[in-house]
Amino acid sequence: MVVKGVVKKGQYFDSVTLMLVAKGLTEVEGVEDAAIVMGTDENKSILESSGMLLDEFKQAKDSDLIIVVKAKDESLAEKMLEKAEKDLQESRTKFEEAGDYLPKSLEGALEIMPDANLVLISVAGKYAGDEAMKALEKGLHVMLFSDNVPLEKEIELKKYARDKGLLVMGPDCGTAIINGAPLAFANVVNRGDIGIVAASGTGLQEVSCVITNEGAGISQAIGTGGRDVKKDVGGIMFLEGMKALNEDENTKVIALVSKPPHEDVLKKIANLIKEEIKKPVVGIFIGGDPEVVKNAGAIPANTLEEAGLIAASLSKGKSMDEFKKLLEEREEEIKKLAEEEASKKKEGQKYVRGLYTGGTLCDEAQLLFKDMIGYAYGNAPLKEEFKLKDSWKSFKNTVVDLGEDEFTVGRPHPMIDYTLRNKRILEEAKDPEVAVILLDVVLGYGSNMKPGEELAPVIKKAKEMAKKEGRDLSIICSITGTKKDPQNKDKVEKELKEAGAIVMPSNAAASKLSAYIVKKLGGDK
């Protein structure tokens, strides 16, 4: 393979354009990889880890554009560089010809919408903090989609916002639902009386979808960004979000969703529940100690699905015994199904390969696996000793988060672009030791608009490849979504089932089925 690239001084295109043009390059036969990114230190570091950092890139500045291609030969690489520049120029021409007015500053945007009270910011992290402060000084709430915002800036922004009675959601906040409006990656959910505070994007999506699919609804869903609940930030906005929902007359039940907060932050959350919150609280802190939440008077949940079911029961005034009975009955059904699937496997098939697009869903699967079949290997494992030597190659039971930086440089997020995961599914299907491939499918605004059409043929092909070698391959999916989503959950489920996938009602259920199959086959621990 040949790696060739070019630095374009002082050129800027929005991130979506860069990702779409790069995706177009990777679809050309003979091209193994391609990236089009701004020359930030973070991007150069990721290019280096991907083996695509050329010497001429090392002096590139944040305002410079880097185009790089890994192709089978020099001639093809040169052609792809020319194609990238041509496609980028054409995208700019289309905008200019369309005549759309695209404001280039916060001030320009406010001239168009003077009544706006919230601004969503998605620019390079180095500049995002200053833009957020400008918005706060104008009295606007902020959703910071950008990542790589310096920690000190995040703390400064959140303290300022708290003192002014404003919210700062993020940085690296990919999901929120405010006054019924889904922001960034979010699903079309019912309006209702359950408020969510979440330091976890796909965790928020999974819980809000479970609630909607149970017939209850969401008042507000406030994202905080994952770093908010760490020691340094101290949960500033998580706590402010709880207070806001406590004061909100349209919120009857509060659901808290996060990976484990720092122990000091968890104590603050518990104290707030005990001393100030006057509404029922459900808490899912994946991997955290449920006793701390329970002792504060909240109801702890073991999975994201359970958190949604508890909140829906409280909202509808139903006994929680109903959903507990449902989960118990389903557990028995899962065990039976696992036995059936395991009985079809050839000797030697014993491992699961989880290929995730959602980070929190990936964590939830690993935690369930830990107690059932032991720690899984991965690029973001629960214990460092289980980190894969090469994230592109699975080992024994493996769960991979494809949304991590190492997989997303210059590419759309895997919730948008299935190309990388589809390739990986076919690679895993070739492995004679693989019994199960576990997938999440996340619907909603911002995600892939044709998940069934793109995934079903790959599932079908993977199963056929295994069958030709005398193996049966279980492909198990969960769908985070609702039938109101633009992709329509029911339609996607039908397409995946027709392709031969087993579609489970939640990520927790899909993970448990996978683990029971592996346990039966002796692939555990």
Structure description:
- The chain is of the alpha/beta class and 525 residues long.
- Helix content is 45%, strand content 18%.
- The chain is built from 18 helices and 18 strands.
- It has helices at residues 15-26, 41-49, 74-98, 106-112, 125-137, 151-164, 201-213, 236-247, 263-275, 290-295, 304-316, 320-343, 359-372, 405-408, 419-430, 451-468, 489-498, 507-521, and strands spanning 2-8, 31-38, 65-71, 118-121, 141-144, 168-169, 175-178, 181-184, 191-198, 218-223, 253-258, 281-285, 299-300, 351-356, 398-401, 434-442, 474-480, 502-504.
- It has a 5-stranded parallel β-sheet with strand order 10-9-11-12-13, sandwiched between helices.
- Helix 13 (359-372) links the parallel strand 14 (351-356) and strand 15.
- Helix 5 (125-137) packs parallel to helix 6 (151-164) and helix 16 (451-468) packs parallel to helix 17.
- The longest helix has 25 residues, at 74-98.
- The radius of gyration is 23 Å and the shape is globular.
- The protein starts with a strand and ends with a helix.
Give a quick rundown of the structure.
With 525 residues, the protein is of the alpha/beta class. It contains 18 helices and 18 strands.
The total of beta strands comes to 18
Report the portion of residues in β strands. Answer: 15-25%
Q: Which class best fits the helix and strand makeup?
A: alpha/beta
Rounded average pLDDT = 92
Count of individual helical segments: 18
Low-confidence stretches: none
Strand order of the largest sheet: 10-9-11-12-13
| Shape field | globular
State the helicity in percent bands. 40-55%
Rg from Cα: 23 Å
| Spatial separation of the terminal alpha carbons | 38 Å
